[in-house]
Every structure is written in structure tokens, then in C-alpha cells.
Amino acid sequence: MFARSILAVTALLSVAPLMAQTDKNDAAHQAADAREVPVTKSLNNQVAAADAQAQSAQAQNDANQAQYQADLAAYEQAVRDHHREVLSNDATFARQRQAYAMAMRDWRLQVAACKSGHQRACEMPPPNPADYM
After folding, report:
1. Which DSSP category does 73 fall into?
2. How far apart are CA 51 and CA 60, in angstroms?
3. What does the CA dihedral 103, 109, 112, 124 come to, rounded to 10 degrees?
4. Is the Cβ–Cβ distance between 78 and 94 less than 8 Å?
5. Which of 27, 83, 82, 62 is nearest to 54 (CA)?
């Protein structure tokens, strides 16, 4: 019997603090809330502001990355266009050199014919390289 009373008293003692904690209308809880609620709200606002700043930074990083990718694609296209233009210029230059060489060959033949007495060769205009392109 004595053991039962000790057990009952122990159970009541362990439940009493729990019952006291659930009563939030007492003066101690209200005083604690009056001190802690503004601090908690302030901390929550700071966390929300930091979160908003992080989201803004992430959005800016995403925008920067998209701009970088667009710039990189434009640069690569410009390099390809330049390479194509260089190849075109090289081909044009090769054709121009070939046309000039053929015009010079015909001019030398014309001069040789003129010097050997062919009057008509002396009267002809010199070859135009543009005619050989």
C-alpha cells in the first residue's frame, strides 16, 4: 500500500509541471511572451529578408548566366562568320591572282607578237585581269 501511495505521489508530481506548462494565461507566460514575441518576429523578419535577398541573388545569377550563354553563342557565331569570310576572301584572292597571272601571260605574248612585227598585236589594248575571272 505504501508503494502505491509513493507511486501515486510520484505520478502527480511528474504531471503537475506539465499541467502548469499548458496554462498560457498565467502572468509568467504572458510576461515571457511579451518579451519573446517581438524578438521572434524580428528574427523571422530577418530570415525572410535574407531569404528574399538570396532569391534575388539567385535570380540575378540566373539572368547573368543566360546573358553569358547568349554572349557566348553570339561570339561563336561571329567566329564562324569570320572564318567563312576569310575562306571566301582567300578563294577570291586566289581567283584574282590566277586572273592576273593569266592576263600577264597574255600581255607578254602580245608584247612578244608586237616585237616580232605583228602590227595588230601592237594596236590591241593590254589584257584586263577582270576579263579572266
Report:
1. H
2. 14
3. -60
4. no
5. 62
Residue 120's identity, in one-letter code, is R
Surface-to-core class of residue 107, CB atoms within 10 Å of its CB (0-12 exposed, 13-18 middle, 19+ buried): middle
List the one residue out of 91, 90, 88, 102 whose CA is nearest residue 130: 102
The structure's pTM equals: 0.45
Cβ atoms 103, 127 nearer than 8 A: yes
One digit per residue, the tens of pLDDT, for the chain of length 133 reads: 555 666 555 665 565 555 555 567 787 788 777 788 888 888 899 999 899 899 999 999 999 999 999 999 999 999 999 999 999 999 999 999 999 999 999 999 999 999 999 999 999 999 999 998 8
Q: Which stretch of DSSP H or E encloses residue 56?
A: helix 27-115
Give yes or no for a contact between 90 and 65, defined as CB atoms under 8 angstroms apart. Answer: no
The C-alpha cell that represents 59 in the structure block: 535570380
Which residue's entry shows cell 589594248? 125
**The dihedral formed by the CA atoms of 123, 127, 131 and 133, expressed in degrees to the nearest 10:** 170
Could you tell me if 110 and 124 are in contact, meaning their C-beta atoms sit under 8 angstroms apart?
Answer: yes
